Amino acid sequence: MTPRIPATIITGFLGAGKTTLVRHLLQNAGGRRIAVIVNEFGSLGIDGGVLAGCGIEGCDEDQIVELSNGCLCCTVADEFLPAMEALLDRPNPPEHIVIETSGLALPKPLLKAFTWPAIRSRVTVDGVIALVDGPAVAAGRFADDPEEVARLMAEDPAYDHDNPLAEVFEDQLGSADLVLLNKTDLLAESDIAGLAAGIAAQLPRAVKVLPSRESRIDPAILLGLGAAAEDDLASRPSHHDGLDDHEHDDWESFVVPLPAQSAPEPLIARLQQTAAVHDVLRMKGFVAVEGKPLRLLVQGVGSRFRHEYDRAWAPGETAGGIVVIGRKGLDQAAITQAIQG
Ligand SMILES: Nc1nc2c(ncn2[C@@H]2O[C@H](COP(=O)(O)OP(=O)(O)OP(=O)(O)O)[C@@H](O)[C@H]2O)c(=O)[nH]1
Question: Could you give the CA distance from residue 4 to residue 189 in angstroms, rounded to a whole number?
Fold first, then answer.
């Protein structure tokens, strides 16, 4: 029997550092043929664009497969399985497959896809790695807000739902074989061990929580976990166990188109201000800057922003824009106006 190809699933909330981890893995593949399947919430294909434009030696664009529909967990049959089969049927199939899920995806439906006979006979889930945004956890972003719960219960006595951020976060952690507590540069040194222990205590199984910065952990630790997660679904609890389906009604995303900017800084200031006022969870996009041949990659998680010139615009690829992601109910018109200035 041909050995099964190992697949690593990378999960983690919006902006935790998943794409950064995939880049790190590709950069340090040590000659191993790694294929990446990437899926994100919100159009524009930023993550695929970041990876395909990575300029990493030995990394061809055809190693990156982008699934455009925002929710891998809902499109397993239509998109994910055909993409996997196409990868496996290549004349030179990958030695390892890395799947980056969207920050709002629940990993369990994806894990279940690996029990389907057509996939199970050829691939095994080597491990599920959950990225955690350290400062967001430290700020209590994923904890239930007792006041909010009390308010919702007053409105509807039958209310028993967690905060949707907490729910997605817990589902992602519940499936993990390894957790990276990322962005330690933004944490006080003295808080790291306590936060890691707090996360470990929340997990349904004994799973290691490793602190990381820029998702930099040796691939020898990340790949080769040998978890065979598809055989072990019962020990990976989800809020949606027993439910046939789940909704993504809690979230929304839209694109704000932007013309060429005179400089990055005023735009970043407007984005920061917008994120703070409107409680936006994630913004990312590519923008043209006058007089610059390269496109500006803009990344925002909450109100923390980074920007860099990443590569030249490809022919026909001129329109800039920012994807905005948040909880349902964003004031799209006001946000668009605030960002466009
Ligand atoms: N300060 C700091 N920033 C980080 C670290 N790791 C990643 N980032 C930044 O955080 C932002 C989000 O990182 P990504 O890797 O795109 O996160 P993601 O989980 O793929 O995001 P989504 O796909 O949108 O869910 C980027 O600006 C990264 O450069 C870190 O350890 N420290």
Answer: 41
**What pLDDT, on the 0 to 100 scale, is given for residue 115?**
92
User: Considering only CA atoms, which residue is closest to atom 25 of ligand 1?
Assistant: 14
Beta bridge partners of 321: 257, 286
pLDDT tens per residue across span 272-292? 999 999 989 999 999 999 999
Contact partners, residue 188, CB within 8 Å, separation at least 6: none
**Residue 23 belongs to what H/E stretch?**
helix 18-27
ipTM strictly over 0.85? yes
Q: Round to whole Å and give the CA distance between 257 and 340.
A: 8
The domains of the chain, with CATH numbers, are: 5-235 (3.40.50.300), 251-340 (3.30.1220.10)
Euclidean distance between CA atoms 216 and 248, whole angstroms: 31
pLDDT tens for residues 238-248?
877 766 555 66
| C-alpha 322 to ligand 1 mean position (Å) | 16
Q: What is the DSSP letter of 13?
A: S
Q: List residues near ligand 1 (CB under 6 A).
A: 12, 14-20, 40, 47, 103, 131, 182-183, 185-186, 213-215, 282, 299, 301, 306
Give 325's contacts (C-beta < 8 A, 6+ positions apart). Answer: 14, 41, 42, 103, 104, 251, 252, 253, 280, 281, 282, 283
